[in-house]
Amino acid sequence: MKIAIDAMGGDYAPAEIVKGAVLGAREHGVGIILSGPEDVIRAELARHDTSGLDLTIDHTDEYLEEGENAGWAIRTKRKASIFQAVKQVLAGNAAAAVGVGPTGGVITAALMVLGTLEGLSRPVIGGAFLGFTPETLTIDLGGSVDCRPDQLLDFGIIGSVYATTWMGMENPTVALLSNGKEEGKGNEAVKAAYPLFQQSGLNFVGLVEGYDVALGKANVIICDGFTGNVMAKFCEGLGEVTSNWLAERLKGSLPDAEVERVVTDLKRATIPADTVGGGPLWGVNGVVCKAHGRSKAPEVSSTIGTAKRAVEIDLVGTFRRELAAIKQHITLPETETQ
Amino acid sequence: MKIAIDAMGGDYAPAEIVKGAVLGAREHGVGIILSGPEDVIRAELARHDTSGLDLTIDHTDEYLEEGENAGWAIRTKRKASIFQAVKQVLAGNAAAAVGVGPTGGVITAALMVLGTLEGLSRPVIGGAFLGFTPETLTIDLGGSVDCRPDQLLDFGIIGSVYATTWMGMENPTVALLSNGKEEGKGNEAVKAAYPLFQQSGLNFVGLVEGYDVALGKANVIICDGFTGNVMAKFCEGLGEVTSNWLAERLKGSLPDAEVERVVTDLKRATIPADTVGGGPLWGVNGVVCKAHGRSKAPEVSSTIGTAKRAVEIDLVGTFRRELAAIKQHITLPETETQ
What we know:
The structure is a homodimer of 338-residue chains. By secondary structure, chain A is an alpha/beta fold. The first copy, chain A, folds into 2 domains: 2-121 and 281-314, Isopropylmalate Dehydrogenase (3-Layer(aba) Sandwich), CATH 3.40.718.10; 126-273, Isopropylmalate Dehydrogenase (3-Layer(aba) Sandwich), CATH 3.40.718.10. Chain A has 14 helices and 11 strands. Chain A has a 6-stranded mixed β-sheet with strand order 3-2-1-4-11-10, with helices on both faces. In chain A, strands 5-6-9-7-8 form a 5-stranded mixed β-sheet. Chain A is globular. At the A-B interface, helix 8, helix 9 and helix 10 of A face helix 8, helix 9 and helix 10 of B.
């Protein structure tokens, strides 16, 4: 199996990316195609023992820079290294692509080159954003802001497949996030999505409230990307405010080092950026994995391992089959079928 | 000034409500009209020193019970004590009404008897739901689930008036909650509301994210009731999860009593039900104040004081005038003016 990686993305590119690619090739027994300027990559490779490894370079002089607007860069940098890496998947030279950053660039390249699975209009962003509840996936966290009822159902299918095939859950519970638990509560999209979930064959447990997200009352919690984004960012803000308050409150009562440990643990549990690490993009028509922009070589290698696993279990194929199978017997509301 | 109070609402009715009414009449120098069964109220009054107080009884045998569906009770109990109390305001016999619970009953009675201010279709639910940021009001927290852009503007006006006249803030900042800070971010309602806020003359500072709510980056933060409800309830859930985690984490490192104090402080700061206490209902065409269902006599008296203050500063008149003045020079989007 070969995996393509953008050597120029991320805070520590190219040094740590190339180092991580070499490490990943050895640890996971895969071939690696490195996209970026050949001379730069060759100079980095020369620092490592590459004997016996299948490493090739896909040369391009262009790459996205951190802070650059991905939407603008698309128009001017069609040969950017992240595009090159994803194109290797399209061409069948690589089974998966890995990008380390910037996030917008990885998502845009995946979307433009590979497209989304049938029925999805955008990649789906979700995950266990709260460290306290690692078995609760919230979807969507900002990919799709205004959602139709059938899009909410798509999120439910994707989350359920991911929970089962990737996380190993048996019959994960799926719930719609709403402003009350009683059937009939919700905004228009939630009310219209409710019967679709009932027909879906998913393990649908009805409506949950914001309270239940924090307590992990379901394995897959579905909301539009506006609500999910607000909630996940509120979580991060509240985690920070609480951590700062706690540091002040405990000062003098406990040794400084212990206060530091408690506060660090709390931050880790509540800051989504730290808990939603690298993983496959959901809804893209091919395996593209995003590593955190701050990744160093071990995390890069680990994301290569993630990409390999996604290929091996045919995650994308399972998404595709389940989306088609479930939606085949669903009656969409009038406005959606027109 | 006379204030009408439902003697039969709340967890400790009628004993603590009648006791609180007597206390409130003396502390705040107002007359009180008590709604409920005359014999029950008379028996409770007999336990207290009522000399020199202006206390009258508005007899009715009907009242709402805790847990009863307010929507159903409306149809069968049109003479319920909470309705009677609000009707005293409509009739001009009382300047304000006070209800202790259930919340749905107080809101429904206020809405059915007095109606909402022009342009508003439902009472507005908002407040400083996070104890860490007492100078940040979030509106709406669940009153209106699907919101038109002009409704979001109404919330901004009401929040701004409340921050100014009630909380004494000078030129409070007003922001729209969104999934990113950059202009152009947002769901359809937020995008359409943005230019209305720009034209409004409010101290509009643009978009804020969920993160900024927790950090109190604006004084008045506007969102639809679905998003606000999810966020406030998530806050409560996260506060509870964090408190439980902290109690476990600190056990043995600090004396039990000190752990208890830290955890209690944290819960108080994050549980909305505890921070959003009694206050005037926003958007109702008259002064109706809701006290927490668990209120005892001192809280009942304090809510009577709140009602008196709302009358004295003409809070409802100011809401009405500002809504009319600001909306007079706003160009509503096509879909709203049809």
